[in-house]
Every structure is written in C-alpha cells, then in structure tokens.
Write a structure and sequence with these properties.
Blueprint (H helix, E strand, L loop, with lengths): L5 E5 L3 H13 L6 E4 L2 H10 L4 H4 L2 E5 L8 H10 L9 E5 L4 H10 L3 E4 L4 H17 L10
Parallel strand pairs: 1-2, 1-3, 3-4, 4-5
Helix pairs in contact: 1-6
Length: 147
C-alpha cells in the first residue's frame, strides 16, 4: 500500500519556516508538512511516533543545520547511519552555511540536495518536485519484508 509522503521540516526560525512552507504550497505541493523547531522532537517523531515515517510511510526531510539543541549534521548522521526505514529518506539541507567542506560533508553523510539560504525558491520548488516524483515512482520495500 502506498502512503502519501510527509514533509518533515526541521527549522528553528519561524520566519524561514513560513517562507519555506509558502513556497512549497506555491509550487503546487499539498503534502502534509510537520514542522519541528529542534532536533530532539524531530528525531522522536521520525524514529518512533505512530504517525511518523519509520512506522507509517515515506517522508522527505527539510533540514536546517543550525538548531538550538543539536546540529543538523548530527541528525543526518542518526538518520542515515543504520539500516532501517529512515536510511533511504531523502534529505534536503536548507541552511545559511555555504562552506564547501560542510557542503561536501553533508553529501558524504547522505543528504540528497544542499541549498544555501537565502533560497532561490524556484530552484528549491523544482528540487522538491523532482524528489516528490522520485518518491512517487520508487517503491520502498516494507520493513516486515526485510531479512
């Protein structure tokens, strides 16, 4: 059974979060957006919530690197390090950091797209659309079917 893709936004700046959501909607993307202001609550949702992606279908994660309680790279490591339902979850890093070493580190850790704020929202919307198309055509195996 196919579940709709939930967009999980981990962004501590409310203004940036509103702008990101506005542009997602303007791009014609109507998926549910779950917004978290910190990494701790986001990880709790991602890893164990009954309506979270590890138990209830695919997600797309929009991740800021500069969070109040932990770094976005710590979250990326945790999502991508272990085999399981979150390892294949696409991650879009949206951050003010444009350091080439940090960008490469995020790609090495498994992020799919790295976008520097202030965001070119047309490019951002196109990246989200392409990831959504990718998620709609790729069938991820059920956890129960894993050996």
């Amino acid at each position: 059974m196919t579940h709709p893709v939930t967009i999980v936004m981990i962004e501590d700046d409310e203004g940036h979060a509103r702008l990101i959501e506005k542009n997602i909607r303007r791009a014609g993307i109507n998926n549910q957006i779950r917004h978290f202001l910190d990494g701790t609550s986001a990880l709790a949702f991602l890893e164990s919530a009954a309506d979270g992606p590890s138990l209830n279908g695919p997600a797309l994660i929009l991740l800021d690197l500069n969070l109040p309680d932990m770094s976005g790279t710590d979250i990326l490591v945790r999502i991508k390090r272990e085999e399981g339902p979150l390892k294949r979850t696409p991650v879009v890093v949206l951050t003010t950091t444009d350091d080439k070493v940090e960008i490469q580190r995020c790609y090495d850790l498994g992020c799919n797209v790295y976008i520097t704020k202030p965001v070119n929202y047309e490019a951002f919307a196109q990246a989200i659309r392409q990831l959504g198309l990718f998620l709609s055509v790729i069938q991820v195996p059920d956890i129960d079917g894993a050996a």
